[in-house]
Design a protein that fits this description.
Structural class: mainly beta
Strand content: 35-45%
Number of strands: 8
Largest sheet: 5 strands, antiparallel
Radius of gyration: 15 Å
Number of helices: 2
Helix content: under 10%
Oligomer: single chain
Shape: globular
Order of helices and strands: HEEEEHEEEE
Strand order of the largest sheet: 6-5-4-7-8
Length: about 140
């Protein structure tokens, strides 16, 4: 499946740079000891005057839920319809959810609750993006 190209901005550049190195990093607030994703200029827990860093996480999680996309408005993705879109909860912080097409999983045959690990696949502009694959527990 071809992924839509990603254009990092100043805030998200560290996330995408790490992805190009096949590492998954999440924004971390040093003031309240919380991970947060997606990245933000302010901490969702403690507010405006926070100090952030990027923390590498394990790259493991579980499939929380999924849907099947039959009518995608993104032209680049229409050629692969229908496709899975799964919600992944990170083992490092189950409150953080990421999305994946689950490469290799047949449409509508998603094993909810299954363990997954991050992989990195190229987008249309060459930027690597995190996706998730099912693994044995």
């Amino acid at each position: 499946m071809t992924k839509q190209g990603v254009e990092p901005d100043e805030l998200t550049q560290p996330f995408w740079d790490a992805a190009n190195e096949q590492r998954l990093v999440i924004q971390y607030c040093l003031d309240c000891d919380q991970l947060q994703h997606p990245p933000s200029d302010t901490c969702r827990e403690c507010g405006d005057d926070c100090t952030f860093e990027w923390r590498q996480v394990s790259g493991r999680g579980r499939i929380y839920n999924y849907g099947v996309v039959h009518d995608c408005p993104v032209r680049l993705l229409q050629q692969d319809q229908p496709f899975n879109l799964a919600v992944i909860m990170l083992d490092d912080d189950p409150g953080i959810q990421m999305y994946s097409h689950l490469p290799g999983v047949p449409v509508d045959d998603v094993p909810v609750g299954a363990a997954v690990e991050v992989i990195f696949e190229p987008s249309a502009n060459g930027q690597l993006v995190p996706e998730w694959r099912v693994i044995e527990d």
